[in-house]
Amino acid sequence: MLIIVGLITLITVSMVVLYVSSSRFPSHGLGRIALFFVAPFQEAVTDSIGFARGIWKNYFSIVATAKENVVLKEALRQEIARNSQWREIELSNIRLRKLLEFKTMIASRSIPAEVVGKDPSSWYKAVIINKGSADGIQKGLPVVVPEGIAGQVTDVSSRYSKVMLIIDRNSAVDALVQETRARGLIKGESTGQCLFKYVLRKEAVNVGDKIVASGLDGVFPKGLQIGDVTGVVRRASGIFQEVTVMPYVDFEKLEEVLVILTPPKPDFAKNP
């Protein structure tokens, strides 16, 4: 502020000097001397004022640009969030279409459900789905996905149900090797894999063999895929082999499932 006042004062004084000198000494003498000394000063003052005016304009331009950048950044953030939501909806629709296509392949009546929670305990492998007794869900019903068997309903409330996954130690699925028909029992293991137990040593089981549900437990429909054999150990003693199986289902990415409401009964149950 003091600089501006000083500049105004200097400009006024220089103008007065020029006026007085020019009126008294029109073209020579003191008029020329005054012009010689005052003109450069006036030029410097004019340039300074122009420079200050430019800085002032640039300042407002920078402030306006900064505000515009803030607005644009917020708009970009909202657009990114909106695109992310649309992408999530698109992926969800793809999974649901795949699930519904799989549903048409199952002869039994079924209902889709969404995974809304997981058992926090490290000892149990279970998830919570958003369907319960009000939707026809009952304890013991099988739960599947297009990739294969996921688990079995163990607890039911009116709106939610708990599903024990096949990788839980308490889970058991009667199964067989699809090619050789060697039969055993799929049990869960803490490593995220399964054990194919009670398979006789004489049975042919090899790494890469596909394991499917036998349908003899009266829970899971026959032929539903479970996983691939990843390891076989035949010890010198004992009547069973040790077989490990990697499930087809990625349980860490389980989001939607299909609950089979009327699982088929095994053959021996149909003809008492």
Identify the quaternary structure here: single chain
Give the percentage of residues in beta strands: 25-35%
Number of domains: 3
Overall geometry: elongated
Distance from first to last alpha carbon: 106 Å
Radius of gyration: 42 Å
- Tell me the strand order in the biggest sheet: 1-2-5-4-3-12
Contiguous low-pLDDT stretches (5 residues minimum) are 17-28, 268-272
Sequence of secondary-structure elements = HHEEEEEEEEEEEEH
Largest sheet: 6 strands, antiparallel, barrel
What percent of the residues sit in helical stretches (DSSP H or I)?
A: 25-40%
The chain-level structural class is alpha+beta
Total of helices: 3
Give the averaged pLDDT, no decimals.
Answer: 79
Number of strands: 12
Topology of this structure?
Elements lengths: L1 H23 L5 H76 L4 E9 L7 E4 L12 E4 L2 E9 L4 E5 L6 E6 L5 E6 L5 E7 L9 E4 L11 E9 L6 E8 L8 E5 L6 H4 L2
Antiparallel strand pairs: 1-2, 1-12, 2-5, 3-4, 3-12, 4-5, 6-7, 6-9, 7-8, 8-11, 9-10, 10-11
Structural notes for this entry:
- This protein has 272 residues and is an alpha+beta fold.
- It has three domains: 1-105; 110-165, Thrombin, subunit H; 172-251 and 262-270, Thrombin, subunit H (Beta Barrel), CATH 2.40.10.350.
- Helix 1 (2-24) packs antiparallel against helix 2 (30-105).
- It starts with a helix and ends with a helix.
- Strand 10 and strand 11 (240-247) form a beta hairpin.
- The protein has three helices and twelve strands, in the order H-H-E-E-E-E-E-E-E-E-E-E-E-E-H.
- The strands form two sheets. A six-stranded antiparallel β-barrel has the order 1-2-5-4-3-12. It has a six-stranded antiparallel barrel with strand order 6-7-8-11-10-9.
- Helices cover 38% and strands 28% of the residues.
